Amino acid sequence: MFKSLDSKQMKKSLLAIGLGAALAFTGSIAQAGKYGIGDTATKDQIAGWDIDIRPDGKGLPAGEGTVEAGESLYEERCATCHGLFGEGEGRWPVLAGGEGTLTEERPTKTVGSYWPYASTLYDYIRRAMPFTAPRSLSDQQVYDITAYVLYLNEIIEEDFVLTKDSLASIEMPNQDNFFVDPRPDVKNVRCMKNCADPKKLKIAGTLRGITPVGHFVEGADAPAASHDAQMEQEQHKEKARKATLKGETLTSHGSAGAASLSEMALAGKATYEGACKVCHGSGLTGSPKVGDIDAWAGRIKQGMPILLDHAIKGFSGDTGVMPPKGGRVDLSDKQVEQAVSYMVESSQ
Ligand code: HEC
Ligand code: HEC
Question: Is 43 found in the same domain as 86?
């Protein structure tokens, strides 16, 4: 059966199977033919996903980075959240410091104090940062910024040149505290009779909420089960409060009902959700919260041209710093205009 496939093809089809879970591809070439679903992953598609980097540096692209080049990039793309020295603005993650705190009741887990491998830093930044625009940095920029974050943690010197080889040779301070757990695996036996009544089972913990999201809301201590649900609830409460003040009753759930939005605003909803909500959904870093009529009234009075100018070029006002295009310089001016319309119309 395999005779009809040469070894290159076989490799490809095996890869397609391996990637199945992540890409929702449904299996091998043979299956694709039979059920008419799924495609063989192209080389480019595989390359787009295949970006993991191992502790020995395998997977790192070619390039070299310097602390000096990383400094300005970091200040531009990362410091609004992580602080100029990696100290973390507000309650955004701290990236530097914290050595020796791991055994304390409230350890400060940072790249320097906690992470076992430097390669993870390159992988993480390339994959996930900046938070609002993952994959927007070039491989070269990631090298520079990685060098700078390592420098902030006093792991490399100012003149260190970060390359594929030198990155893999870096020993992180906490590396030895990661080891293979020698305890045997245990697993539950499936219950087949006289089992507990599912209705009476109590869920003690859920996977959701491992990354605390409660800190997105000012004054909230406990992590919320779902960020979105929490935001919606907050916005609804706020609107309801204001509606009551004005003697109205609120019928639509959440912020302004879709029916009342202009075409321009509707077109901006997705951009808002992808690029602006991270701050404007909760009022983070002093941003005016969408749906908060008081916070927007004065701003809206300035008129659309000024609001748009501030959103596109960035703006430093009385309450905080609005980064150019919210940090998403890849957005067109038109997309930003649509998002601003959405925000304004949902806040008046
Ligand atoms: C808009 C805010 C924001 C910006 C800008 C941002 N980050 Fe982050 N960063 C986050 C958040 C939020 C997390 C935590 C994500 C999570 O836990 O799922 C994070 C996590 C990280 C972590 C992992 C921290 C840890 O110990 O787990 C690193 C490293 C990091 N960011 C680096 C960067 C770098 C480098 C840049 C600039 C290229 C950047 N970030 C820009 C918000 C931001
Ligand atoms: C990292 C957080 C952050 C992100 C992301 C963000 N903003 Fe802002 N934005 C702010 C802050 C903070 C202010 C308030 C600045 C001030 O008045 O001091 C603001 C203010 C604004 C204003 C009002 C400007 C004025 O003149 O009063 C507009 C409009 C705006 N943002 C649009 C956007 C749009 C559109 C996006 C997404 C493309 C976006 N913002 C993403 C933080 C953010």
Answer: no
